[in-house]
Amino acid sequence: MALLVAAESANALSMTPRPLSQFQKQIVTTDAIIHYIFGYNPRLIRPPYGDITEEQMKWLRNKATKSLIGM
Known about the structure:
- By secondary structure, the chain is mainly alpha-helical.
- The protein is 39% helix and 6% strand.
- A two-stranded parallel sheet has the order 1-2.
């Protein structure tokens, strides 16, 4: 059995109208929760509502995380 764990955001808000710093905080918070529960650092993210900007994608790539949308 395989389990795929993908992060979202801490409160499922659309991230495209928000500044990059808020997007980063949401992802870092969610990653910490997943790590606490599963002992695993997620490498995949599903952007809420499928919304993600190029700037957000670039930040994810720099932290070795892939988006399930816009890959």
